[in-house]
Structures are given as structure tokens and as C-alpha cells.
Amino acid sequence: MLESKRLILKPPSLALQPAVLAAIRESKAELEQFLLWVPYALTEKQSIDDIKKAIENFNRFEHELRYFIVEKDTCELIGAIGLLIKDENQGYFELGYWLKTSATGQGFITEAVYRLEKHAFEQLNAKCIEIKAAETNVKSQAVALRCGYQYRATLPSDSQLPSGELNNTIVYTKTCL
User: Fold this and answer.
1) What average pLDDT is seen over the chain?
2) Which pLDDT score, from 0 to 100, does residue 157 have?
């Protein structure tokens, strides 16, 4: 568990599954614009299976270290943030995140990014953390810039949005706190 001023970042747990499913369902319209996994996370079975896989990955330090974002004051689950393990030996990670719609615009993701990157650089020996965002996802790009990530590249037609449309991917990196 990781803590910041207003947030607790909790490792994946089946106890959080109902709140995770409710948050995804609440925010389906916004999340499905950019995240391909949303249609596969809308039933209780899918949600349970996904969290079981996240627990396995977390415990084995494989693929992704996912944390669920909980607001301290309300104990409400408001989103998720994770480190994709790109190359453990080189200390290379990719950071991804989502918030439920009702929690956006309050600086929660910025705070969560700062806390998780601190953990990555100080405890996981990260040398480089990337944030990738669809060119049309200006909110995610704003988070990267607000958190001090540097623009590195635009990858033309690199990703397909859930709508089927090709989109450029914008890559931001950070190599130290």
C-alpha cells in the first residue's frame, strides 16, 4: 500500500472488485473512448477474472503492478494506476491510469502519478518511466506534462482507438524525480 496526502494506492484485491466494477460502469462512456479493455470489464465475472490476474501479476512482479486509487477522506475507490513492467533489468516502466468520471478535475491522478513514480524510482530502481497517450486524449497528455514528463515522440498511426479509428500515440518520459 502506498499513501499520499489525499490518497491510498491499494494493491489489487477481490475485496475491491465491487467498487472497481461500479467505477468502470459509471465512467464507461469516457473510458471506452481510449481504453480497449473497457467492454471486457463490465460484468461481475470479467471484473473478478481481471482482478485475479492483477493479483497474480502483482505477487509475481510480472506484466503490471496495478494499484487501486482510494480517496482517504471518503474511503471511496476512484480509479486505478499501474506500472507496466517493460524491462525489469533496465528499470523501464510504463505508467497508465484511469479515474471514474465523478473524481476527475480534482488533481487525484496527478497526486497518484507522483506517488507511484516515487515508489518506482526509489524502491523499484526505475531508470525510465513512460506515459503514452492517444493524440486525441488531451487530458492524459496534460497529466504527463503537469507531472514533469518530457515529450519524446509522436508515433504516427500507432494505435487503434476502440472506435476503430487509427490514432497517433504521444510518448512522454521521465528519468528521475
Assistant:
1) 95
2) 93
